[in-house]
Please model this.
Amino acid sequence: MSINDTLLFHFVVSYFATAAFGIVFYAPPRTLPFSALTGACGYSAYYFISKNYADTDILACVVGGIVIAFMSEMFSHIQKTPVTAYEMPAIMPLVPGIGLYRTMISFLEKNSAEGLNHLFETIMSAGSIAIGLILTEAAAQIYFREKYRKKRNRHHDE
Amino acid sequence: MQNFTDHEILNISARAGNILLNSNAETYRVEETCQYICETKGLKFAEAFVLPTVIILTSNTEGEQTKIRKSYDRSVNIYNICKINDFSRGFKNDTRSYTEMMEYLKAIPQKKPYPDFLYFVMCGFVSGSFTLLAGGTVYDFILSYVCGLLSGLIASYVRHLPANTFLKSFFAGIITGTIALTASSLSPKIFYEPIIVGGMKPFFPGIAILSALRDYLAGEAASGTTRLAESLLVGGSLGVGVALVLRINMLLGGSV
Model:
């Protein structure tokens, strides 16, 4: 087993990758360590599940999305910053870049059957990350944002 | 406490919203912020309609006024989003005058939390680390770092051109493809796949897809669809850049 395959290696590398993404997106310095931690935990959860159990890419993406959204909500309530500040950098390690690349290569080689296969896999994993995010955000909205939803529909009553 | 006219409140709100939109915030966040700023200073029935390129803001009072602000140049900037968030949270108890507030808002996009060179360095670092995560070696890391660095330099160079989002991902694709294929043909130890995957990463439209989905969640179908289409185009131009290089390599007799 080489060092490239260990969970700790992936955790550390994705921590620094997310921090670097935070700087590329001009995240304020005080949110940077927390968004990096969010990204590293989300990616590690994804990596752990998809590595240890076969054919669980979709489950792994859902869990990764849930972890990221939950930690982002938590940090945003602690630091009084928008959820986006943590979610934007943290989601990047999960985005299925390899799938999209393989799709493109297969189509380039005129191998449409394999290309469609990769395309569906990519769309499914992107969709399941979104499902994970949406589930957590809906739960958070029930707890924290009920107040605002009521206010929003008030114009139509007048 | 100072008294603002309707016109002044709408101006402050429209400028704050415009900064948010230029920083690629989600549409529902822009709408919420615009309405919140209007409501806290007495414009009770103000309404905001926001698309990814335009803000329309109207005060539903007597002598109705409407403001339209277009947004031309959009790029992700979390620092501005946080600043405007703090501004609108503290707006209720803000005692500054109208001109002072407008000066403050005007200054926000000019401030940067990091020096400019850090952008290229970090673009390179992002590429390198994703190469490692995709199974690359230390050599792949270094090559991918160079890809990200050069792509970041070009991205900041074409920033002021029209259609810069598509241009910069296209060039990023070309640079990444060229470096990866050249290196892998020179040395049998280097595989181009992790390098290409890592090098594409800083310009991958992941944020646009995420914003699109969150807009859908908040019920903003129009902006969600617009952002989704935009992210497909950006992803497409990235792919075309890499595919072009691979195609030329095939024509010259290389193998993919």
Chain B touches chain A through 52 residues (CB under 8 Å). Chain B is about 65% helix and 5% strand. Chain B has two domains: 6-110, 117-251. Residues 6-110 of chain B form one domain.
